[in-house]
Amino acid sequence: MKIIELALSSNQVLYTVNKFQYDHIIVNLIVKKAYSAGQLMRKGKCIIVIFCLLAFYGSAQKLRPIKITAANANIYRDSLNKVIFGTTVFPYTIMPDSIFTNVNVIDLISGFPYASIMYPIGNLQSIDKFVVSIDNNLVDFPAKPTIYLLHPHTSNGKLFIYHSGHCVGTAPAEDIFSNNNGVEPGLVIPKLLKDGYTVLAVPMLHYKASPLTGVACGYNNHDELFTDSHYPFPLSFFFKPLIASLNYIGRNTFSAIYMCGLSGGGWATSIYPAIDSSVSCSFPVAGSWPMPLRELYYPGGDYEQSYPPIFASLLDYHEIYALACLAPARKMLQINNRYDECCFSGSVAHIYYADSVVKTLVGSNGVFKFYLDESGTRHVISERSLQIIETFLANEEGSLIENPQDSATNGSAYSYNIRSNFKVNTIPDLSEIKLSLLKAPSWLSLDGVNGTISGIVPPDNIFSSSDTISFKAEDSTGRFVIHDYKLTRKRNAPYFFTKYNDNQTLWFLPPYSHSMQSIEQLAAGLFFFN
Fold this sequence. Notes:
It is a single chain. This protein is of the alpha/beta class. It is built from 13 helices and 23 strands. It starts with a strand and ends in a 21-residue tail after the last strand.
């Protein structure tokens, strides 16, 4: 009898291009008798094991590999511009139709919401209003978007774009009615003004409809803008109010341009820095996922968010995130709300793509980070998200002193203390470190008191399998780390067995995976090996 060493794995199929596996694999295994090496020697006989086909479960598509690099970023930016605008030439010549200075009325808001923060009470010096025509067809576009430029009395020399979403007619209305739950003067815009930013407040467009007062969703007819086929490049209209405004005020007027947005504004903030490299830091909130994740967790949405010429044919969202951080090197912090009542909620979607974007940017000085806001249930930019943005801009961040072990033996105890490994790159604020276990197998749990994740690795699994784990640690200041990794569960002992109807060959399965000396050709189709 000859002995052949065999490496057996579960023919793993990954959804994603990064290193993490989501656990949608079924392994059908029929075992007549199974023995470890010690048991085999005591029994003095061979073991018959029949391995059936591995069945893949789940309909999610794979995320495409990220094609973007620092070397080809400008080429892909030109390609993206051509799909959006019909030309690689960026539309620097479009301008607002009308400019009104020193206004004290905000459209679709009764009264003046900013009286309490006007100088000298606050830091708001004055407000200008821009009106931009989307197209001359008044049936399709009966109302022109209004954009507001809010000037601080004491300026830090930087511009911060706030882009609102689908459910309001003006960006200030969203900040008041959504972000600050109806309380004037709002949340995001007043905080940015207090910090010395000039704020450009930009709305989304409306098609065949005029914006309403307050918050009203589902009436802007974005889908029809595409299905009516009246315009060859409909996606360009979504960026026209912002582009015209920036063209007028001048990108070189400011030492830096930042951008944030909620919902549809978060979608715009995901895309726009990829086509306009003057935006050096971007903060999309609850605005996008790569398409396979969207189809799996949040199907539907407005047509612009799945526009096939881009998202099916050219670049998916995770590639656009990378492009927004390259040529020149720039930064993006994506924020989603774990308990969002609207969209892009949950605790696991980032595992599929965030680390692949980070890996793409290695060596480029571009930065991509993801933060999961767990502070509330509403579809808003929260106070916590604002704090995270502020801390990110101050270059303060959290990290781990040592990463957790990424392998463990079946049947063994596994533990890692998150709290004791969390560190910050500046003076600690001495606050309690808040921990969240975002994804973990059922055998692993978080002890919130001592900050340890621990559990007993399930025993007696002949396959070397893996579990995906994700956790978050953060301090009160807003310095955080989200760590995702794959924990490989190794066999705790070697196994010996024979093939069905073959008593002449003894197969040896070592406790470690991916070891092979030789294998019979007839058996090659039954096992995954290297």
